[in-house]
Amino acid sequence: MSVTSYQNLNKGELTQLLDIAREAIRGHFSEDLPRPPQLDLYGKKLLRPGACFVTLEVDGQLQGCLGSVAANSPLVLEVHNKARASAYQDRRFMPLTEDQLEQLVIEISVLSEPAVLAVDSEQELIDYLENNRVGVVLSDNHSQALFLPQVWEQLKSPKDFIRHLKSKAGWNAVYWSPSMEVRTFTVTSIKGKYF
């Protein structure tokens, strides 16, 4: 199977992904065993391997956000699995409860394939980000951290964006290594209420 670019998903396809996430979460509260999506109901584009993140908010507060950078399985299955994981397995939060469903907002972010950005210093990266509000993955010595492009809504300055991203990876604010790898990506996303 080949990986496809998800930058051209249409509104209908994105809505299907949102419905898959809703069903994945709903299945946890039903008496039936939760089942993955039935693959023959979806078009070829949604069946190709895809990487995604599913972000959950309750009353405007983050409730879970898990995903993958590598496209290893069909996008519909990735969305299903990441929705369940974000709702019930994100260790930063208590599992989602039925009481929270009324206020639940789900966002699906489908990632483009991350591209290596050749920079020799943190300042070069900051300069690049001044004009390019993209998602960023920083990797060095078995540590990695990722911010989706949506993080720019909270962290407007590239310097703050990178400082928080380094903190997320467990590095101090001034850490930079000659072996640091920087990858950037964009997302196609949809956001909607659970109900």
From TrEMBL:
It holds the Pfam family AMMECR1. SUPFAM superfamilies: AMMECR1-like. Residues 12-195 form the AMMECR1 domain. InterPro entries: AMMECR1, AMMECR1_dom_sf, AMMECR1_domain, AMMECR1_N, AmmeMemoSam_A. Coiled coil: none annotated. It comes from the Bacteria. Gene3D superfamilies: Hypothetical protein ph0010, domain 1, Hypothetical protein ph0010, domain 2. PROSITE patterns: AMMECR1 (PS51112). PANTHER family: AMME SYNDROME CANDIDATE GENE 1 PROTEIN, AMMECR1 HOMOLOG. This is AmmeMemoRadiSam system protein A.
